[in-house]
Amino acid sequence: MAERLCPVWVGYLLASPVRKLVQNPKKILAPYVEEGMKVLDIGCAMGFFSLPLAKMVGSIGKVICVDMQEKMIRSLEKRAQKEKLSSRIDTRICHQNSLGIDDLKDEIDFALAFAVVHEVPDIGALFSQIWETIKPAGRLLVAEPGGHVSENDFKITVSVAEQNGFQAVDSPRISLSRVVLLEKKY
Ligand SMILES: C[S@@+](CC[C@H](N)C(=O)[O-])C[C@H]1O[C@@H](n2cnc3c(N)ncnc32)[C@H](O)[C@@H]1O
Known about the structure:
Blueprint: H1 8-14, H2 25-29, E1 38-42, H3 50-57, E2 62-67, H4 70-82, E3 89-93, E4 108-114, H5 123-133, E5 134-145, H6 151-163, E6 166-170, E7 177-184
Parallel strand pairs: 1-2, 1-4, 2-3, 4-5
Antiparallel strand pairs: 5-7, 6-7
């Protein structure tokens, strides 16, 4: 599978409000996120999904935002501050093969991995770390860019997720994306 790291300048484009016209975070996430939830945003970049998630989980919820690029995280923190959402957000700069989320065992209600899996060298390790954090029957939504990730590569991604304790339960439709909704299996 390809290994590409999203440049910071693309991070600015991805955080643009214009993107909402094709990928509206609230519409995409509404079926899975409720007030009070603890949510994990993996490869959050500058927070295109993290900030709407923070609004959706409300003041008693939390969004843990993980990215390996410090510049992405710093920009997300500034945006969260501007929107007065900092108290709902926990930012973490991680390493390429370690998300640094070992302290979250069985705590996460919902995890999002949007346009990040194809950038990760060891996706088995990625799914196994996410699995550890998710509560029983918690869910993980994986979306990959249709332009970068072939149908076959996406099938491989889903099968690696299944080998690491997830079960595919749905294939929601999101523009320009290949998508699977996964549930933690025991
Ligand atoms: C294409 S961007 C997608 C950003 C965001 N999810 C969105 O849809 O707007 C991918 C992000 O994943 C991050 N990333 C890549 N490899 C990663 C890894 N191994 N662990 C954590 N984050 C990673 C990149 O730094 C980048 O910010």
